[in-house]
Amino acid sequence: MDIKAVIFDLDGTLVGAPTSFSEIKERLRERLLKMGIEEELLGDLTPMYETLLKVSEKTGIEFEKLHSIQVELEAERMKESFLFEGALEVLEYLKERGVKLALVTRSSKKAALLALEKNGIANYFDSLVAREDVKPEDLKPSPGQIQKVLSELDVPPEKAIAVGDHGYDVLAAKGAGTLSILVTGHDSGRMSFSVEAEPDFEVSDLWDLKKLFERLLSTYVVVPAYNEEKTLPSVLNDLLRCFRREEIVVVNDGSRDRTRAIAESYRVHVLNHLVNRGLGGALGTGIAYAVRKGAEIIITFDADGQHLLSDALRVMRPVAEGKADFAVGSRLKGDTSEMPFIKKFGNFVLDAITAVFARKYVSDSQSGLRCFNRECASKIKITCDRYAVSSEIIIEASKHGCRIVEVPIKAVYTEYSMKKGTNVIEGVKIALNLLFDKLR
Amino acid sequence: MYVAQVVALVAILYLLVRIVNEYRRGRVDWQGFLSWLLIFGIFAVIAVFPVELSKEIKDVLGLGRGLDALFVVSIGLIFLLMFQLYIEIDRTKREITELTRKVAIELEEINERIKKLEER
């Protein structure tokens, strides 16, 4: 993937401290009560900063005065802060790979800098946006802080990933349009309340985070293309939003139109079949090439425009997180409203035949959106040249003991993709092909 | 001689001319040429002595009327031939795919190397 910047949250993500936020909150409450502020105004002090702003507004006490107490308490807490295991290794790895690093935190600048200095990681970061650097309404979960980092680093949102330990981090990332990773295993330093938000990726600790980045940074997309001059440009433009040019592999399967010229003009890898070999032949070539290039994750993505980039990322998730070896995007598990009945029925028949051979039922065995990890991709042997390859891949994956998962996706059925895709006759051929092939 | 026999002989003659031509143009190797000659030879013998032969086959295999026996044996042979062809074509297709794949990958890798050299 094309990751140009990683934006870390500090507390609970990279560093923790023995004192919890609830304790800080209690100490703050005591100090504020001592100042003679009414208890009612304080509520449960969640979140602290915003509550102080409100208190200052209502009581007329200068905000700086209130805020300085919070800063003091935070700084004190950070004096005892520690790095989570694996933090240094993740930062080092990303720096080595030329990724820009930034820090976005809801704590005060003073406390943040103190934590960075104390733990010896200040030099890793190209940008730091703390609480005071943006307007209160722009703090996480608003996207303002992340947007500020992106403009400082001059990185477009889709080429950045935000890493945090809290729903607030995920919401801010979504608002800013970046991808998000949630670190779930750190208890120390977590904010005292929780917010539900679905991240793009989830890991339990920073060792897993490093592994996730290693996989993400060598993810290849294989796009088999046969006479796709109409849709290929928009598909490639879409893919280039998230992937580097050298990670995209277009297999031009002996097209007779301008597919080759178009693919080459995008400066992606283009593998040219001198004669048409069919979908299976093209996929086999693309996957073999990606494995040779050292891909850790391989995604297959149709060139006819029926897949969404966001779905590709979702299909990638279980494999990138290390929870599966092979993921299939299932059009039948997601929104099937746009799928014509005949397609549903045909799919069902082919699913059933596939299930017999694979000894595993996959609700959409004919899906073109898949994701393999390296190990699974190198085990799979593709022998079917034509459309039967989709079933063959599932059968092979199952035979070699790959962990298979299905991820619901939405298929976009345009008139164009309907014409090009498999039809009834093609479906019968797939079935026959499978039967013959497995008798061998 | 029946009309059917004449037709069969003409057809065999046509096939013979074709296989000789194919051989001359180098599209068939000598083993293939000999095998086909042998097969056409057998067909020619059957065409000339159909009744006698069918009686012989009937006596050996004990299959109904003489001509029926001939049909059964021929269909069996043709089926075997088709199966052989299926296997051969299938293997050839795979080899073509493998070849196409290797060429595509190697060409792209050569292109990459050239690009790297140009950048230097």
Features:
heterodimer; A: 440 residues; alpha/beta; 6-stranded parallel sheet; 18 helices; elongated; B: 120 residues; mainly alpha; 4 helices
**Topology of chain B as a string of helices (H) and strands (E):** HHHH
Mean pLDDT of chain B: 83
Helix proportion range of chain B: over 70%
The largest sheet of chain B, given as strand count, sense and whether it forms a barrel, is: none
Strand content of chain A: 5-15%
Task: State the secondary-structure class of chain B.
Answer: mainly alpha
**Strand tally of chain B, please?**
0
N- to C-terminal distance of chain B? 83 Å
Instruction: Give the amount of beta strand of chain B, in percent.
Output: under 5%
In short:
The complex is a heterodimer of chains A (440) and B (120). With 440 residues, chain A is α/β, with parallel strands linked by helices.
What does this 3D model show about the protein?
The complex is a heterodimer of chains A (440) and B (120). By secondary structure, chain A is α/β, with parallel strands linked by helices. Chain A has 18 helices and 15 strands. Chain B is mainly alpha-helical and 120 residues long. Chain B has one domain. Helices cover 89% and strands 0% of the residues of chain B. Chain B contains 4 helices and no strands. Chain B has helices spanning 3-24, 30-48, 50-61, 66-119. The mean pLDDT of chain B is 83. The interface between A and B is medium-sized, with 19 and 11 residues.
